[in-house]
Please model this.
Amino acid sequence: MQFTRTEMLPPQPPPVSQSGAVKWVRENLFSGPLNTILTLLSILVVYYLLNLSLPWLLHGVWNASSLTECRTIIAANFGPDAGGGCWAMIHARWYQWIFGFYPPEVYWRPILNFGLLFVAMAPILFSDNLRGSVKLVGTVAVLTIIALTLAQGPWWVFALCSALMLASVAVALLAPRYLLVATVLYPFATVWLLWGGSIWGPVTAMLGFVVLVLVYRPLSPRLGVVMATSLAVVAAAIWWGVLDSYVAAALEQVVSLSIQPVESDKFGGFLLAFLIGVSSISISLPIGILLALGRQSDMFLIKTLSVAFIEFVRGVPLITMLFTASLLLQYFLPPQVQFDLILRVIILVTLFSAAYNAEVIRGGLAALPKGQYEAADALGMDYWQAQRLIIMPQALKVSIPGIVSTFIGLFKDTTLVSFVGLQDPLRGITTIVRADINWKGIYWEPYIFVGVIFFAACYGMSRYSLYLERKLHTDHR
Amino acid sequence: MKNTVFFGTLATGALLAGIAAAGTLDDVKARGVLNCGVHTGLTGFGAPDANGDYQGFDVDICKAVAAAIFGDQSKVKYVPTTGETRFTALASGEVDLLVRTSTWTYSRDTDLKFDWAGVNYYDGQGFMVRKDLGVSSAKELDGATICIQTGTTTELNLADYFKSNNIKYTPVTVADDADAQRQFLAGACDAYTTDASGLAASRATLPKPDDYVILPEIISKEPLGPLVRHGDNNWGDIVRWTFYALLAAEEKGITKANIEEVASSTTDPEVRRILGIEGDEGKMMGLDNNWAKNAIAANGNYGEIFEANIGSATPIKLARGLNALWTQGGLQYSPPFR
Amino acid sequence: MAVANDLPKPEFRLSALIYDTRYRAITIQVIVLILALLFAAWLMENVRSNLALKGKDIDFSFLWRRAGYDIGQHLIPYTNDSPHIRAAFVGLINTMVVAVVASILSTILGVFLGVLRLSKNWIVSRLVGVYVEMFRNVPLLLWIILTSAIFSESRPQPKDFKVIDGVAKADMSFWNSVAITNRSSNVPMPVLDRPLPTIDTPWFSISTSLVAIAVLLGASIWANRLLLRRATAIQQATGLRPTTWWQSTAILIVPTLAALIAMGFHLDYPVFKGFNFQGGLSFDHAFTSLTISLTLYYAAVTAEIVRSGIQAISRGQSEAAFALGLRPGRVMSLIILPQALRVIIPPMISQWLSLTKDTSLGIAVSYLDLRGTLGGITLNQTGRELECMVLMMMIYLIISLIISAIANAYNSSVKLKER
Model:
């Protein structure tokens, strides 16, 4: 009789050293003497850091009314020598780090404004990714509505804001191209929502742009782009300088639509950081485009002026620009004109980021093959047509990651405004909270809190920038 | 607000432009709010509280001036200024009045062209050291490391003092009060020098105040007070006499609580003039006749303001010392209201 | 811009200034020039009227008045009797010192981390990744503040180094030569007993001993290069490279060493006396923490530059090198890095530029650099904000322009000569 196995044996698991965790550890952590040393060193570093910080973090106190009370609680719970974080100060004052001195009863305005920021940016950030834009708008809508429920305010405000956010989601889903309307309206909405006052101010200011377009359209075929633009700008300037305020006042008489005004000195914390960052980067973009084109121009004078501006701004530290805003800008304006400090800082930071954006966009322009320019010329397009229809759409797309990293840098650098007396989250608000006798003497906690928020925001943005870079990379390979 | 113009979208509602009128008072009245430069955050003297309302000894001067002009102490816009930006803010007209523990010195008065309207706190620079250092006089600090804030008069005083006593020191420059306190607490410097009031405030909030001593030497005179620009004497008078009204009120026993009662019952002619019951004192400066009454009613007289913000009942526990009235051995002295 | 007219136009009409592309450029430039000049004139007029309104003038003579304040770290002689301009100069030197030291350190650390980031070792590459993200995504200002706080919180006080009954609470590191207290770092200072005379100029003094040593060292390096070139020549002629390492060592070290011994070189160790350590070199923590935080922050940025530079080299290069039988270390040093450097260096130079500008953040720890002296205390004491700010911006601008000039020179020299 013969014994023949009719079935295959099940495969044996590989030896322990060749599979699973052990294999992974051997190959990745202890593949050689050098690697082993590095691994051990790394573990040591991690252990040292955790040993240093964990007890302090775990001993944290969340409910107390003063630093002394914190110290008492920690001493009572963990012994007299134990150190611990007094997170109670963040519990007590977190809103000042977020909103500064913005009146609490209208917190819904910055919240809504922040939500709308993403709605306005969605069509730009996800220009050819419908799902991405819907996802972004949807998430932001949900988060905004949650934040709104936590803020104070009458119910109808809440209902109105929620309806607005849901409408944006619907638009993003059904007619994504119309989100661009939100993008165009957003700057005016921001001014109105954040500073408050009559709605007619922003509306008439926006009419100035309508004037600009109305003048430009009929003139441009006849006079050329540059001339038509100059005339249109003059017309708009007349509107803004002379007529605007009267029209706004008259409209306010007829239909009064005003919300509680909030002065700029109430702005602080992350609200201020975002306000300075976002407005500077968005105002600086068009200036940056013009500067980049100017730098590439054949016209000697324009090129020289652009290069001089860009190199000057890039050659001095941001902090000197801020001191200029605070100390010097008044010298360069007519004696009777006074901007408040936040606007002066925004102006200077805008000029600063315009130079950096110009360089980023110049990189984008340089990345375009020469054939694109030649093809545009061959089609008989003039300079501005070629720029508008062929060059800029491609160059800007390539530049977006660079612009995002400029923004990250700028956003981090908004912390410097505390040196001219504005209430940035890092030093400004922290100094104020520390001046309270209850929290005087606290040191690490506010910095950790602010650092974590900055990290979350900047890390998110840099991830997005990476995603974009990868997407663009495949396009060009 | 007729002169307010809107420069397009940028500045809607936030751009303040006005034709510079003849006087600061007219500007302030037209604007409807007093722009007052204050500290970004100094315990007891000027810092925003949990609701964002500014409180403090210096801030109460701003409130009194606003009350004198408008009859409403809340009509103040506080402009937080740093040591480096404060004088420019005043010189450029960004603030009408600066009350930020600023020392009255010759060069600031003449070269920077400011007028001090009075001295609301007589201070002097001192040293704080740890008790176990065994030092009892600043002259023993030869070779010591000293924490000092930049951008103030203190660094000049320190250099002068050590030079004149022919001893050496190592300066550790720090950015602000909180940083100085932390470094001193950690022992990064042997001594911390700043105005004696600031030292007292810092010492009060250290974990073990009794381990630290403030040395007896006061190495400088630091008259701190509200200041205005050169060139508008009427405005300087308003600030000056508002402050003196607070002093006179303490001298005459007028308090926030009894001011109405005093006003209705007093027969003292000077009190009657201060409270605007007789005479036309307010009109001479372009204010209402009850300007001083409003200023006093806002937060009480000088003594009350002192006690409420930095006095012995507060954690800062400053004694009146030089800042007592002249009748009680101090230097605070109001010229007569006549 | 395309010039698209074939028909000759003999007569010039006024409308050609707008419609004819040949003339339009001139029209536009003239208009821009007029506008720019008008704008400049407007600014000047505003400055003039503002100054008149405040009763001020533009006057730089304050720079020669007594400064009156002390600067903890001064590399050239300075007392509070020195004029403001000297204080500004001290500040400029302090700025440059931090910039140079932090640039060198951050580059070394950054290259190291960038290579480790690509390591196959999971835990190492992750750890470096966390480090890089942590530093890049949090404001530099925060790191500066935290570094300075960590120094003063975690290091012992100087008095803890005092030996009481044969026991001290804290010990000096590195065989009793380095003492890092919570107020300063004290390291041994090289001292010459018999130095050559120094040449004093009003601005700084030149130590001829230092110059002599530098010259000697330069000569040795030059001699060594001659030696190596000869060795290479022999190698190419005979195929055998003579052993040169001991000759090189001797040429490089012996002359300098002899000179140092002749001048009586020794180290001056810091010793605890009175309140603090005396002797040796003492670094303020304002300097140390600014340098360290700039180093750590820019090392993270550099690591990313190095990583992307290495990854930009196509895999084929390293595969080809492996196919030739080179070992991994050699592949890196001979094939990958030389090519990667071309990608790495330009962004690296711009990082050094940003680092130099970011030294101005020393304001957070009151480091008395150019901004702290000229743009800080001097400005504040004299009230000359216009003059101080303009001067300070000009100096920063000149530094930046010099660095960018170097960058441009380098870029054009390594540019790939391709079509």
Observations:
- The longest helix of chain C spans residues 21-54.
- The two ends of chain C are 23 Å apart (CA to CA).
